[in-house]
Please model this.
Amino acid sequence: MFRGTIAPDAPDWALILCAVALGSAVAWVTSLQDALDTKRLQGLVEELTARSYRGRARIHRLGPIPDLGRAIDALAERLSASEEKKHRREDRLRTILDAMAEAVMVTDSDGYITLTNEVLSELVGFSAEGKTATEAIRNPDLRQAIEDAQLGLPQRLEISIDGVSGTDGRVLRASVSPLRNQQGVVTVFHDVTAERVAERVRRDFVANAGHELRTPLTAIRGFAETLRDGVDDPDSAKEFLDVILRHTKRLQALVDDLADLSRFEGAGLELEIGPVSAGALIDEVLRGLEAQSKAKHLKVTSSGLADAPPVMTDERALEQVLVNLVDNAIKYTPEGGEIRIGAVSTNDELSIEVSNSGPGIPPKHLGRVFERFYRVDAGRSRELGGTGLGLSIVKHLVAKMGGEIKVDSSRGWTSFTLRLPRADSPRSDTRVSRN
Model:
């Protein structure tokens, strides 16, 4: 019997070969796609590690690697939302800190500054983040307070620091508190420079006022006690009474000036601002003080008064300023000397200059002549009846009127120059209330 093999049909073999080829191609393509997706996922993970949450895999096919890609995409979404929420919180926190009047500095456990606000940057003159607290503010007491706070001991202290770019130094009250779990320290600085200056000015004022009051009161008491005990000589008694009267007038002038200064420095002073004929007012003041100038044989000259345009000011306030300036000129001009009063107009303002001949004011005193109780020559000032408050009153009144006053002393002349806006100038239409 003949036995033979049955060969499959050619088409069947072709189908099998095609299926194998197709399967191999699909497997190769899938393997290639998996490799590409794996590389993409690796890059995406590296971005997430670097805190960049913008990238996405976006794999839409099926399979373990695409499933991993979708999981990484979901993680990136959550991390991105969390980071955005964190940035919003930081922005709100920084906005709040920058809106504070106090300077804020947060340091980590190693003493490096991690957070500040704009006030601190302005205080130290640079951005302090990333620097140590000692680099930002060089003060040994502050450094020790931060170290103590890091150990859980809050501190309160007052420090002095140098000013920025040549400005005056600042006095700061610092509150140093530890963060939770000793993660760092937060320091809040309150600028108390103005308070300390005000305290010093108040102490100086009390001391000066007490000194000014003590002298006439001592004289009045002494001569009054002498009169009480009896004085046989009528001429001596009259002399004692004259001294008492002179010191009483000085006390009255001092009390009046103190009351005026208190009123002018306050916020409640209301001036009636309007057009004022400066030339006529100056002429009136000169006539009112003519007897004093003639008693010292002074030569008083004026110029530009007839052509002086009206100024925007308060008439009574300007009169008081002019009386103070001219009266001072008369007092401090040597007998037989000269006083000059001039008015010069520009497009926007009128300059009034009161000058007197004499020894002048040394340069070191020029910057302080408007201070309360400040005298270039204290003995001579008291002898002439000055209270030491006249120029301070002038300064405050001029400021209330929206003007400017300066002093110069050279070549044997002392000049006070007052500048006020003309009534017809644009400045007079935009003046703020002087309340």
Notes: The first strand starts at residue 103 and ends at 108. The chain has four domains: 11-93, 101-191, 195-265, 274-429. Residues 11-93 form one domain.
